Amino acid sequence: MSLIFRLAWRNIFRHKGKTWVVGSILFIGAFLMTLGNGLISGMNEGFQANIVRSFTGDALLISDQQESESVLASMSGKTIEAISPYDLLQKHLSQSDVVAAYLPAVAGYVWVLNENGQPIDQYLLGVDFPAYQKFFNHSLNLVEGHFLGPGEKGVLVSADLREQLYDYMGLWILPKGQAMVSSHLSEDAKKDKRLLEKREIVYMGLSQKNSSVDIRVDVAGVFKFKALNKILGFYSILDLNSLRECLGYFTPESNAPLTHAQKTLLTASTNDIESSFDAATAGTSPSQDLSSSFSKSISALATAPQKNKPTSHAAGTYNLVFVKFKPDLSEKVGIQRLRKEITAAQLPVKVVPWSKAIGILGQFSMIMKGALLVVVSFIFFVAVMIMTNTLSMSIMERVSEIGMMRAVGARKSMISGMLLSEITALATFFGGAGIIAGVAFITLFASLHLGTSNEMLQLFFGGDSFQPRLGLSDFMTCIAQLAIVSGVASIYPLFVARKISALDAIVRD
Amino acid sequence: MHLVQIKEVTKIYPLGTTEVHALRGINLSIEHGAFMSIVGPSGSGKTTLLNMIGCIDQPSTGQILIDGQDISKLNDNQLTELRLYTIGFIFQSFNLIPVLTVLENVEFPLLLMKNLNRNEIRERALAIIESVQIQDQIAHRPAELSGGQRQRVAIARALVTNPKLVLADEPTANLDSETGFAILDLMKHLNQKNKTTFIFSTHDSDVLTYAKDVVKIRDGLVVQN
Question: Would you say the pTM of this structure is higher than 0.80?
Fold first, then answer.
């Protein structure tokens, strides 16, 4: 064994030119692969952290009647089952050992009605906005208008959606009382000489009973996500009750106590109602009280001012709850423990990991990862080709030496061992140096906290700052990749070397 | 029993659409302890015959027995073992391992052998180096030696395993005449001392004076034995 290593080691120094060629390729390849792995890992972690921090929380709770778990980016447009009863769940969550914070919400697809053309579908999230901001660490930037205050009715439109709405409807959405900001216009909108402005939106929601409910809401503001807006900015945020109403869910107003007149009206028989109308018309009134109170209640309902009164969350319907686990719990453990708690409490909900809740969005990370992997694989391939050629040339120059070794009694396995030792030594030294240089670069870049507001760069960064990282598993991946490249690159040269016979050495002479 | 028995051996090399008949039916028996020279003009088949005897090449037809073993029935590993334990080689171009020192080159075949300990290897290598009188160069690499010294190293490497048969293909061809004769003297001395069988090819008539047996071949056939 020591003979093989001695031969390998000395051959490395004897063929200095080729050693440097192969070594340089190994160094550059390992360096680039390490950087690539750091980028992929950083992007993936950044992407996940940003999504968890500003979009999903650690997990979501949805009704156990809800079939699809990808409730945040479902393509089906089907109404999400309501969580019922929410009060029990709320009570449990506030006492849970696992949950650090939670945010109940309503989500669903609606149609944006357009008097000028086709309606367009849109995903809306109904939340108590101040609570949303607190829960998601103020992840939104205000572009125009203002954020919704406590109990305020209105919609916050995503800046990207505003451009989409313009493309489909030819209307430029503006917050109420907001003047046009020409620098915020999309390229197409800037060219539009008859640009129509719109400060309110009519949404048509499909209720669970398949009936449609239209609502008209004022636009309060336009926002962007601080990070990953290109991915996350596909929904607008509506006040809770407006969305509940639009989607046909139960609202706190539905639960308000009925007046005497309303109760009378609801409990009256059809004949009583009809006769009360007749009596009112004729002027004689056996049921004058009923008729009078009915008329009053109708007129009272019609003239009642729309007040932005604060509502109790527990009083209305929710169809999902965002959950953050306590800091000492990993996502996996948190989910396991919350599931146990929920099963024990017999609550009619299920715990959905955030990665499942975002459905197709989660694949974006895979696509970006795939794109970078293609680049890394290309580096891989080029490195293998150059190394294979250089090593093969080196073998061909050593036919006499290898043939002579075979003549004096060296087996093929000894020749293979010698060459593998040479390649291993080169890979360890130069490839190892490449990995160390890559780690140094990654550490340097990570410490610089390079930030960007460029939305395309954010996709590669996995957030608004460049944070490549290399964990132990990534480090092991780099070593494995180096081993694979070296291994694959040595297959053909080994094949050539093993075919060299003692006769070849003599023929060469 | 003869050390080497060659029976009706032919060797045909394809050359494009034609065939080259390097050996056309050789019959030869070589005794233990022989000091035999194979002579003939260039292209007569000397090297081909040595390659067959050395288990480096296989005959197209016929049979070669080395120490009683039919080489055509041995696989690659068995042939390698046979070369390691039974045959020593001395090449025209010395063919030493350039990255190893004289001592390491001589030790090389011993290190390939099983069941030899480090001390035994070193002792045997030093002893044979001394017998070929290059003990002053043991730490040198081949590039630092003269042609004669390299060939002495090659002889030492061929003999260090105590082979029954040493094959030398024109061992003096790349040496000046004085060094060549010194090498032949050395080979003859080792043949007489160790009873090792030497078969060497040459086309130098002066070299023939050293040989006890001479086999003359021409056009792939033995014309005189």
Answer: no
